[in-house]
Amino acid sequence: MQKSVVIIGGGASGILSSIIFKENGWDVCLLEKGERIGKKLLCTGNGKCNLTNLNVSLDDYNTPFVKDIIQRYSPEVVMKYFESLGLIMRVDDEKRVYPYSESATTILNVLLQKLSQSGVKTICECTAEKIVQKGDMWIVKTSKGDFEADKVVLATGSDATMGTNSHYLYTSLGHRMTKTEYAIAPLLCDDIKGANGVRAKVLATMYIDGEIVMSERGEFLFKDNALSGVLAFRLSSMLARRKGEFKDCKIVIDFLPDYSIEKLKEHIFNYSNVFNPLEGILHKAIAQNVIGRVPMDRSLIMSEQKALNLAKGCKHFEVKVKKVAGRQSAQVMSGGLDTRDFDNITLESKLKKGLYCTGEALDVDGLCGGYNLHWAWASAMACGGKK
Ligand SMILES: Cc1cc2nc3c(=O)[nH]c(=O)nc-3n(C[C@H](O)[C@H](O)[C@H](O)COP(=O)(O)OP(=O)(O)OC[C@H]3O[C@@H](n4cnc5c(N)ncnc54)[C@H](O)[C@@H]3O)c2cc1C
What we know:
single chain; 387 residues; alpha+beta; seven-stranded antiparallel β-sheet; five-stranded parallel β-sheet; 20 strands
């Protein structure tokens, strides 16, 4: 008799695992709470969908749990699969992979086309409310009635930006949850004024309780009370993973990582403009913040010491971080169902045979750069048993 699986959640990992199970001969039923499937996918990567990254490695994730799965289902395997669905992709300088069209709709459409061709039963506006065991089978109780199957996959993601947390479906069966915090979001801080909307390519070093947790080049987008942009998003994950358990977090910004202090000092000394000693070096709004912090006499005469202090100010600008911004501006949730309760090859529950979990519902979070969708695809392939 044909084996059956109910997949709860029509997001990235739920859609792909439905397709893979179907390819492997299963009778598949995909349940989605919203009025349509793949809604979150459409807003990924600013509408362009950064679907994976050629540099995927263990260092990009919060846990070694992902090791075997990301090795087996590498970016190349994921891209090859999407190619087989008809998707053409492009890779940018940071090895981030996008649909060639740079439109998230394109990737959703190839998935939807495959889903309907393969005959997966998809039921929208159907909220899974409870899962109960009946002999060797599982029953998923929903707002649209009961669905019975040999296997259940929880692919419910998180409520970051949009969506719902449905971890209770498994915690009510004995699964453990780790502490959660939103990640890939702006970092809240009050230290930079008047630079809303300004972007700068910098080297940023994040210290948590005195320890360097990340030092990376990238771009900040300054906001009135926050640091945003890809670099801030990447740093935010390091802070979120502390789950609020830190006393002090600061970021030291080097606005001119390609210049030594000495070289910069010489430049400031030789070219300084009396009204703005950092003219020609930094954006005016950033310059004002740096100058405001540098101890110096306010005379119009540039001295070697003044130039040195300004150079140091440009290369060592400290920002105290209060916390990561909340749900509405977060792309993922750090924390989720405890991975210790799942097999790291098949993603089957170690507590309840026949239950599986994929994607962000698990305590797996990747840095900004395509790593979360990579995990969604790779975990879907692992759970569906892709050869
Ligand atoms: C604005 C934004 C931009 C992002 N950009 C990127 C990016 O460019 N690259 C990247 O790698 N990652 C990105 N991410 C993260 C990425 O989208 C997620 O990590 C990924 O979608 C998780 O996939 P998933 O299948 O686990 O869950 P989701 O895609 O969140 O899907 C879960 C689905 O389950 C449904 N559901 C929940 N509870 C129930 C229930 N009880 N019954 C039925 N259905 C239910 C939800 O409605 C939802 O449709 C972004 C996220 C956001 C919010």
